[in-house]
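Folding Problem: From Residues to Backbone Shape
Fields: amino acid sequence; protein backbone structure tokens
RECORD BEGINS BELOW THIS LINE
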Amino acid sequence: MNTSQTTDAPTTPPERRLRPHASSRLKRAIRSWQLYVLLLPALLYVALFKYWPMYGAQIAFRNYNPVDGFAGSQWVGLDHFVRFVTSFQFERLIANTLTVNSLGLLIAFPIPIVLALIVNQLQSERFKKFTQTVLYSPSFISVVVIVGMIHLLFSPRSGVVNNAIELFGGEPVFFMGLPEWFRPLYIGSDIWQNAGFSMIVYLAALTAIDPALHEAARVDGANKWQRIWHIDIPGIMPVVTILFILAIGNLFNLGFEKVLLMQTDLNLQTSEVIQTYVYKTGLQQAQFSYSAAIGLFNSLINLVLLLTFNWIARKAGQSSLW
């Protein structure tokens, strides 16, 4: 072997070796310019409606005056945040928002998983499709119609529920006027409306599980419940973890429209949450800077919760967002 030829062979500089590769990537990008044109409207939408409005978040640190504009209004720093934290409504708003969302997370989050596991075990394809249709159909009903149905069903005079209570010798209950009934009605109607649609995500994850695993489990003598526990649940656990992290990131976000429509003067003790308070102070009372500070405070809490639970999931060896 001639070592001189191998050692004395000229070497190509790294920059020169990278040039053909970079140029080939550029040529491929030019050839697929149609894909970038299709992507352009989505990028413009995100830039105009998601990132550009962040410029207006500075009014949370100013005494905003529409005449002076964003930059001309007086800078007050954290005064609006301190005002909110020290206000007499702070504890009630935090408690109401956190209680409704926490109960909804504990009660409503597992239900779509259970529904998906049950529907996935149905043998008849026709009955399986019928069940899926029945379960996710309520998600297509608007929030206004849902709240109208709640008012009709739980009306103290003509509601079906109160008629049934009177039929069994009880006294009619004014459900929409009692603070203690707001949370059960909100969470129960939310489960009825959205559980079926969330079930579709878990059903899609179940279809990705290799059928050979179930066949091998049957050969080993595993029954249906053992296959669900040892195959189906671990198979969808990455999806469950991701959706749980996203749900934690929205722990202080509540369905504003539904809460506002279900609110009455009698149940404000439990139905007044951060989102409705921001709406009332910002739009009805024109306290733009104060309401912007509350909204920014709420978003920061959600961001901290998202980052924290994503870090916990990653440290625990589970699936994470990044």
Remarks:
- The longest strand covers residues 62-65.
- Residues 3-59 form one domain.
